[in-house]
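Task: complex structure prediction.
Instruction: return structure tokens for all chains below.
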Amino acid sequence: METLRLLGEGFAVVVQPLNLAAAVAGVLVGQLVGVLPGIGPASTIAILLPVTLSLNATAAMIMFIGIYYGAMYGGTITSVLFRIPGESASVMTTIDGYAMARRGRAGPALGIAAFGSFIAGTLGVIALMLLAPSLARVALAFGPPEYATLLLLSLSLIVYLTGRNPAKGAAAALLGLWLSVVGVDLITAKPRFTFGQLKLLSGVEFVPVAIGLFGLAEVLLSVQRGAAGAGVTADLRLRAVLPTVADWLASRWAILRGTLIGFFVGMLPGAGATAASMISYATEKRFSRHPERFGTGAIEGVAAPESANNAAAVGAMVPLLTLGIPGSATTAVMLGGLLIFGLRPGPLLFQEHAPFVWGIIASMYVSNVLLVLLNVFAIPAFVAVLRLPRAVLLPSIAALAIIGVYSLENSVFEVWMALLFGGLGYLMHRLEYPPAPLVLALVLGNTFEETVRQSLQISHGSLAIFVTRPLAAAFLVLTVVLIALPVVAQRRQVRRLRAVRKAT
Amino acid sequence: MSLPRPGRVLWDRLAALLLLAFAVYIVAVARQLTYMQGRVPGPGFAPFWIGVGLGVAALAILAGSWREARSGRPAGVQPEEEPLPPARPLTLVAIGAVTIAAVALIERVGMLTALALVLLALGRILGGSWRAAVLTAIGLPLFFYLLFALWLKVPLPRGPWGF
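Output:
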């Protein structure tokens, strides 16, 4: 009952004109960036952060969530019609979605993706609503040692789960941690790694780093990827988009399983929507009585990953809102934004800023409804966007990034920082260093250092505090297991290779 | 998004060596800061361990690249994404140079003029028509003026011509 009352208050927040406008703008922009290959939700939110600073925190966050959600819906369109994932979480949809389009069934593929996303998104929000407040209550009992070890676990998870080479992920995370210690040490007021720059005394600003690593680097990578192909022409009128009864029957379990997998995988730091869509596709194929149909245009192969990526986007909000720990690049940028607004997500958020929390939860319902309508009625409009020439689009993104970063502090220094990190982001992509751990570590670094120091202060310098408190010890053991896993796997691989060599 | 082998192995090692050198630098600076203040970590505590960790990660990347070269298989999980087409270094360098030049000019010619230059030059470099490039270079700065200068009240740097 209490939950319903709070949700009702949340809806009262959402229907305020500014917040409603933010939701509409968010889903429209999100849908657009979802359609446009290369530009993802993390870079969009980073680039738009300076603009949203003129709004209040609630409207800004509602807009960010709309963008995140919209990108999940929009990414489907290019996957199905062009076999180009508009967004990394739509990679799996290219397989059966494009196969369906080539067989003249692009409409139902897009339709089931939209409805599946709607169902998954809505069920996900219900789960979030029931789960998050209890998790926040548990997290209230966390002291500095629990937080320090939980942050270590989250960072290890994101290192382990993003990218192919954990050592490179770890290097990226450590670079992010290093960036977070730049500036005046808060306890002793000693400057660290400021290179004589006055501007660096207050630390490395998060927004220029995020805009560089995601926004500007993406522009460079998009230049390299080249233009999208011609794609499949398809009937996208309303009647063609609505799935048939047979389509619904074939997809019903795929949507439900996708929702379940997506929500829980989305909650894990580092796993996120992309991993969720891959796991749910693989699961569907394994559960299917006709796995051979997958890859040739099975509608379940579209319904499962598309439901999963939307549920994952909701799941990712659970650790962000209750623990203040973002699980992905996009939620890390959201956290960075909230910190600029002076809001620190965490267990206290549910008590101290209830209208804010419930307002954004209610906005997820609203965004879902807006998006399913957009994706049933307005697909042709978004397909038309793809005809916008890259020679106009990419320079416009670069220009918006430059003026946006400048407007943060009204200084060119931040613009230079963004350019520097744009170059670094491009190199990182080319050399397969994942940028997400860097951004996440930069956002969490200060809290991490602070909680470690506070813990050691409590224990008078004894490290035992991290193993004598049960929860902290559990987080630490999990971290050690995660770090040990790739080493063990590599050992095994080497041994297997040696055995093969001996045998031949 | 991988670079073609064997070039990648070389770049991988170069990057790892650079990271190793940077890790040594971090540790060296951290040692000049206080490591422990009494029984509580000082300002040098975190940077020291970050440097050590980065060094270990760089060594692991180097070791991985050697193993990869010996076994002929890339380290880690197999790639899922299609590789990027080969870099077009001239285009990328031109984009970088134009952007850097424009940012350097922001305080002399004004933000809107600098952005117009970026839009015009990048539009042409990316193969757009003169018409599209000129229209974007005029239209978008105008939109930015309305959004940032008028609505958000950001004091944008002006050029000698007043905007």
